[in-house]
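To make the argument concrete, we let one protein speak, a sequence paired with a row of structure tokens, as a model reads it:
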Amino acid sequence: MTRRVEIGWPTLGTAVIAELDERNAVLAQSVWDALPYRSLQGHALVAGHHLYHVAPVHGLLHVQGTHKVDRREAPDGTLFASRLQHLGIKYGELTEPMPAVPIGQVLPEHLDTLVESGHEIWESVYRTKKVVIAEVRRAGEPGGHRLTRLSVTDPQIDALIGDVHAETERIWLSPPDDLADMHEGRIPSCAGSFETVLTTLVFVNGETRPLGYSCFTGLVRAAYEEMPLESLRHMAQLLAATPAEFLGYCGLGKLHDFTTRALAGLDRIDNRDDFAALMAHLALYVNCLGSWNLQLFPWQLGDHLRRKGSLE
């Protein structure tokens, strides 16, 4: 069966078609099953010519890829499914030697459009801050958007998942109020020594991304890899409490509240599947926050800092 995916950027007036393949069939199917959806479009800030967005696909957090390649050597237009919950597209030179999981390829006749879109998206993330939304759908079918909600047996934990899911939906395509306030210098705790704001933004970015990518995502993987439930509870307390408390102080009060409620309720969870469901929703929420922070962050302030020398 041919599975073609259209990835469009309506504000840019561009779109490309990609064909999913069988190199990592389970992951490709997970993305296919989640369509259609919309997501804030991001651009790599360190690795090079690479687009990515947070995909609302819980399976990306734990499904193992069976075929990996060096992203640097993959053809332009390769689609990747990342365990950071990203759908990525290479459109030019990459410098980061990261093993990556390919799931498809942009059609050759659309590569020029991909490059054009990539450069415009870079400008939106780095300089103009114009929000670009990616619309991902099965080619030839209607678009739309949905975030899957998982359920668990305990009513209190299920209610927490409902609250996290609702907040994730609320901020999915619109900047979170607390992050927007922070970037405009409205920080109720007065975090930022000597009234600085950039310092706080740097630390918030530095704590938010690993909390989503490493902590909550890692706990989902550990649950699926059959770590004992008591160990999962212990690791969650060790890994999540301190960064969530710090981020709450900096202004991300909802994140702190959700994490506090989750940690307080861990003893109510009696199986790994329910533990994984809770952590998956926290991961998606925090990964969404991280995506917005990268969009809002004033990267252009460092425009005068340029790499010396060139690649050999």
About this structure: DSSP finds eight helices and ten strands in the chain. Residues 3-138 form a domain with the Cyclophilin fold (CATH 2.40.100.20). The longest strand covers residues 86-94. Helices lie at 25-34, 111-128, 155-171, 177-183, 198-224, 229-250, 253-264, 272-296.
